[in-house]
Each structure stands twice: as structure tokens, then as C-alpha cells.
Design goal:
Length: about 650
């Protein structure tokens, strides 16, 4: 603890004065390296620059040392982050130039040791840091403190402990102005790999330390020209040329025994190599990705999708498909494997396949048929007395939805288990992104869920689940789901809104339900929340729900509350002519009255006509009037406040 920042600066200055000439020895000492790294965090730019100049001759020895490598990495991060300072900061251009010169000097010391550093446990981290700096990334620099035990913990100086930084750790901020000298460092690293012998490159792809370094280099490819990217990818995968894996026809029987294709398949099955293939799929140009799929993976897609490791690169491939023929080919090859994918717990492959079909709008109906066939009960037992053909079909659809949301590959699954994340993503994709004629199948099954025994309790449980609440959000916000189904689902929640308001996820679902409910359902929701007002006031999200649903207004002036809702609905109808989709002339006032605010008004005479309003248009019109009302009330409050202040001044006088 320091009473002022000047005292701390004085202490740090004295520390650097004392360690002059001993920087390398102290950095390599097990007991001194951690305190030295901590002192560097509070050092100014001049002290960091002097430290870098002092350790430059011993950069390689520090990079491969267990303790000194951490100190060197921290100092490199500190020097790179001054380029992200604001223009009006005190960092001068001369200081930036000196820092860049010190960084380039360290890289020159490592020029003849790049390949050795790739395979070294500690040196590989130094190379990764240098690559990120050359890309212009802002790297995190955090003290290794325990926020629970250290009384001096400050989250502003420890960004890795904050949720915001953890969330964006993979998407680092990048500077637009990257010095030209750094490109020469990157070129030297690229040359070291391309000029290495084949045995070294192959060993590099499977090595636990070298493979992540190559993956970091692959992230630089989008910034380079396409020909350079193709050449580098073909080099590390041993292709015959950037446009061909083998010299002969890839469809011939000899191609299966090609060394390049066997090497690619071994990478797909390896734990380290599969990460390398995933990165290549992510950054490769479209033409290179087409070659990788057509000549290297097609024909064995189902086999790799079932593999415990290779299924992850296949998921990445399905997520980055660039054209419709590729997506169609992938579906035709994986179609017969869908039941086995469920059996082997490869549901992530099915999710990615579902997203690709939604993106290109192809083969959606066959996919849903296969999905239904894989998850439905093979030996159903309908009750001839109670189950009609339609009721039996609806029951089967609900069972498929339940099997997907509570998917568990184990033989004896727990019926009270949480919603499966991948199953939730598939349902969201079908309801929200598939064509309405196909996506409505899941929507109907979800709306009919209340018909089962304990259906409302199950829906409330889903709304309070992180993955299940997303399904309900997509259902309520989707324009392809008919308004009738939405009102049916909202009716199923009646009696459980107080429970929803007590949960973090459930309160958001309750807000969505209230926003699109008709006036009759809004009245029931408000009354239900009013009865549980005291209990809801104890939770922060409960208080927000009471405010959003205007329960206080409903309690004090119920007639005025209903008048405002009716007025807002009339405003939407008044402005419907200015929207892209107008109100159909044949819609009767009674039909419009029962429709929710922001929902679709359908023409009963013609089902093919577009709906009158979407939720987004409704929200836009509502926001216009809310802004005007807010401005008017703000002026009134300000006027009243000015009057009070003038009265106080008069009383004082």
C-alpha cells in the first residue's frame, strides 16, 4: 500500500537502479523472476525500454528458460501495448520508435533459432507472443493475483480476472497501424517453415508445442495475398500444388493410397493435428477449402463424423461451407449417418449440418424426416380409445422434441436433466432459420407441449434453463411462427409467471411473452405478477420485470392502463400503411382486437398473403411514441424542478 503514486514510482525507480547489469540473472532465478515480472507491470516506458535493451543479447537463453521466459514475454507485451495509446497521450513518437527498435533487435537475436523455439516448451510461447505482436494485436498484461486473498487486488489493472476480457480473449483488439519492420519478422518465421525439411514440417504438425505456433501463423494468412496463403497451406499439408493434393486424378483408386491424403487423414484423427486442420478450414481461401473437401475429405465424411476426434474438423468444415453444391454434397453423404451420429453422441455434427442447410435453403424437408426417424420411438403404442390419428401424430412430434432437447446418449438418462445445448441449437435453427413451412413443425410441437401431463411445469423449467430459454426466445421472436401458436404458448405459461420472474433467464422469457401477448393475456399476466409483487421485489430481475410489465400502473389505474394498451394498438394500425406490410382490408375489427401488439394479422380469406405487421415494425412505432412521451415528461419534470429551486432561493433571501 502506497499513500501516493509518487512513492510507488520512487520505489520502482530504486529497484531498477539496483538491478542494473543483473537483469538476466534475476529473471532466470526462481525466487526473483515473479517479483521482477510484477515490478515490470508498474514500470514506466523508459524503464521497460532500458530493461529490453539490457536483455537483448541473452534473448535466446531467456526464451528457453523456465522462469526468464515469463519475464521476457511480459516485457514484450508491455512494449507492444504503447502503440494502442491514444493520440493525445504522453507517449512520444520517439519513444514508439525506440520500442520498435528494441523489439526488432530481440527478434534478430532469435532469427537463427526459430525452429528450435517452435519445439521448446517455453520458447514456443515467446514465438506465439511475437507473432501476435507482428499482427498488431493488443495483448493482455495482467498480474497473477488472487482476487479473494489479496487485499490490493484491482480489476482495472488485472483485466484477465474480469468477465469482459475472458469473453473477448480470443478476439483481440488489433491496431490499424502496424510498423513495417514487423512484417520482416513474420516473413523470417514463414521462411523458416517453408525451407525446413519434410520430416521437420510433419513433426511440427503433430507436436504439442509446435502445432499451436503454426496455428498462430495461419491466423496471419487473411492479411496476406491469396497466392501466399495457398502456397503456405499446400506446404504444410504436402500437396502437389496449391490447387491439387495429388498429381493424378483424385477420384482414381490410387488417390486413396497417396501419401498426402493419408497424411491429411492422420491429421484429422490426431488430437493436435485436428486443431491444425480446424484452423486451416477457418482461414483458407474458398478455392483451397474446395480442394480440401473435394480431393481430401469427400467420400470419407461419414467415417470422420463418427470419429471421436475427427468430428470436430468436420463440424468446422460444415460451418465454413462456401457454396450450395458443397452443402448439398455434405448432406447426401451424411444423410444415412444421422441415426448413428445420435447413437455415438456426435450431435454437434448434426447441428452444423442443420445450420448449413438453413443458410443455403436446401434439403430441409429430408433432413427433418431423418431427424424424426432417428429420434422417434421405433415401437409406438397408440391408445385406440383416446388417440386419434392426428392426436397420435402430435404426440409423436412432442416426443421427438423432448428427445432432442433432453438428448442423452447414455442408456439410462436422467429425466430431470438440463436442456442439452446442442439439441437446443438445432431446435433454434429449425424454428428461426428454416423456411416457415418446415420450421412450423417444431413450433407446433412446442406450442402443444402444454397438452401433456405436467406440460406447464416442463415449459417453466425450460424457460428457467440457459439453453431452454433460448428456444423459447427464438419461438416468440420468429416471424415464421404464426401468432396463434404464440398466444397458445403464452396461455400455457399462465399461472407460472411469478416463478419465471424469480429466475434470471425466466424473467427475460416473461418479458418477451408480455411484449407480444394480446390485451386479455396481458391483463392476466399483470394480475399474476401483482399477486406475487412482494416476492418479486426481493429479486433484482423481479423488480425489472414488474417495471417492464407496468404492474404499478395496472395496480393504481387499471382503466388507464387498458386505455394506453388500446391506444398503442390503434397507433400501430394507423401507421400500418407506412410500413412494408399493410393491414389486410378484410381483417375485421374483432380479429384485430384479439391479436397481440406487434404480432401478425392474417387475412382469413387468403392464407398466402403476407402478415400485416412484424414484431420489429411494431417495436419501431412504439419507440417513436415512447420517445415523444419521454421527452414531454422530462420537460415537465425539469420545469417543476426549476420552480422548486427558485422557491428555495426566495426562502433563503
Amino acid at each position: 500500500n502506497f499513500q501516493s503514486a509518487e512513492d510507488r514510482e520512487l520505489l520502482i525507480g530504486n529497484v531498477f537502479d539496483e538491478i542494473k547489469g543483473m537483469e538476466v540473472a534475476l529473471a532466470g532465478n526462481r525466487g526473483c523472476s515473479a517479483p521482477l515480472e510484477r515490478v515490470l507491470h508498474f514500470a514506466n516506458n523508459n524503464q521497460v525500454l532500458d530493461f529490453l535493451k539490457a536483455v537483448t543479447p541473452s534473448a535466446h537463453a531467456m526464451a528457453i528458460d523456465r522462469c526468464a521466459s515469463h519475464v521476457l514475454e511480459t516485457s514484450l507485451k508491455l512494449q507492444s501495448n504503447i502503440f494502442f495509446e491514444k493520440e493525445d497521450s504522453k507517449v512520444s513518437q520517439d519513444m514508439k520508435t525506440a520500442m520498435e527498435s528494441a523489439f526488432c533487435s530481440i527478434c534478430e537475436q532469435l532469427n537463427s533459432h526459430w525452429l528450435d523455439l517452435f519445439f521448446d516448451r517455453y520458447g514456443s510461447h515467446i514465438v506465439r507472443t511475437i507473432i501476435k505482436i507482428c499482427m498488431g494485436c493488443r495483448l493482455p498484461v495482467a498480474l497473477k493475483l488472487n482476487p479473494h486473498s489479496d487485499p490490493n487486488f484491482d480489476p482495472t489493472t488485472n483485466p484477465t480476472h474480469t468477465s469482459k476480457f475472458r469473453r473477448n480473449e480470443k478476439e483481440l483488439e488489433r491496431s490499424e497501424k502496424v510498423p513495417k519492420e514487423r512484417q520482416a519478422v513474420l516473413d523470417a518465421i514463414f521462411v523458416a517453415i517453408t525451407k525446413a525439411d519434410d520430416e521437420t514440417v510433419e513433426h511440427m504438425a503433430f507436436h504439442q508445442n509446435a502445432s499451436p505456433v503454426v496455428q498462430h501463423l495461419l491466423e496471419c494468412l487473411p492479411d496476406l495475398d491469396e497466392s501466399t496463403a495457398k502456397s503456405f497451406i499446400s506446404r504444410i499439408l504436402f500437396w502437389a500444388s496449391p490447387d491439387r493434393i495429388v498429381d493424378f486424378d483424385a477420384t482414381s483408386p490410387d488417390s486413396e493410397h497417396s501419401e498426402s491424403i493419408q497424411y491429411l487423414h492422420s491429421l484429422l484423427r490426431d488430437r493436435k493435428g485436428s486443431h491444425l486442420i480446424e484452423k486451416i478450414i477457418k482461414v483458407a481461401p474458398p478455392s483451397t477449402l474446395a480442394v480440401l473437401y473435394s480431393q481430401g475429405i469427400r467420400g470419407s465424411l461419414g467415417e470422420f463424423a463418427l470419429h471421436a476426434v475427427a468430428n470436430y474438423p468436420i463440424q468446422k468444415l460444415l460451418a465454413h461451407i462456401k457454396d450450395k453444391p458443397q452443402a448439398q454434397g455434405c448432406f447426401e453423404e451424411l444423410e444415412e449417418y444421422i441415426p448413428r451420429l445420435f447413437e455415438c453422441n456426435r450431435i454437434g455434427v448434426i447441428w452444423r449440418l442443420c445450420e448449413s442447410l438453413a443458410t443455403f435453403k436446401i434439403k430441409q424437408k429430408p433432413f427433418l424426416k431423418k431427424l424424426k426417424l432417428a429420434l422417434s420411438n421405433p415401437n409406438p403404442s397408440p391408445n385406440p380409445k383416446t388417440d386419434s390419428k392426428l392426436a397420435f401424430q402430435k404426440k409423436a412430434d412432442r416426443e421427438v422434441l423432448l428427445s432432442l432437447l433432453h438428448y442423452n446418449p447414455h442408456p439410462n438418462p436422467n429425466p430431470n436433466s438440463r436442456v442439452n445445448v446442442m439439441g437446443s441449437c438445432i431446435v433454434q435453427c429449425v424454428i428461426g432459420r428454416f423456411e416457415s413451412k418446415h420450421g412450423v413443425w417444431f413450433a407446433k410441437a412446442l406450442a402443444d407441449m402444454s397438452g401433456e401431463e405436467g406440460g406447464r411445469e416442463r415449459l417453466v423449467k425450460w424457460a428457467c434453463d440457459p439453453a431452454g430459454s433460448r428456444v423459447l426466445d427464438v419461438f416468440l421472436a420468429s416471424n415464421s411462427v404464426p401468432s396463434k401458436l404464440k398466444q397458445k404458448l403464452i396461455g400455457s405459461f399462465l399461472g407460472g409467471f411469478a416463478t419465471l420472474g424469480m429466475d434470471t433467464y425466466g424473467s427475460f422469457c416473461a418479458q418477451k411473452c408480455y411484449g407480444i401477448a394480446n390485451i386479455a393475456n396481458k391483463r392476466k399476466i399483470a394480475q399474476e405478477l401483482l399477486d406475487a409483487e412482494k416476492k418479486l421485489q426481493t429479486k433484482r430481475h423481479g423488480q425489472i420485470l414488474l417495471t417492464k410489465c407496468r404492474v404499478r400502473k395496472f395496480k393504481e389505474e387499471q382503466l388507464e392502463w387498458e386505455k394506453e394498451l388500446s391506444a398503442s394498438q390503434r397507433k400501430l394500425e394507423l401507421f400500418a400503411d407506412f410500413l412494408d406490410e399493410g393491414v389486410p382490408n378484410s381483417a375485421t375489427p374483432q380479429t384485430q382486437k384479439n391479436k397481440p401488439v406487434g404480432a401478425k394479422i392474417e387475412n382469413s380469406g387468403s392464407k398466402n398473403k403476407k402478415a400485416a405487421r412484424t414484431l420489429e415494425n411494431a417495436m419501431e412505432i412504439e419507440s417513436l411514441f415512447k420517445d415523444e412521451e419521454y421527452k414531454a415528461t422530462k420537460k415537465k419534470k425539469k420545469k417543476a424542478q426549476n420552480k422548486k429551486e427558485t422557491r428555495k432561493k426566495r426562502v433563503k433571501k
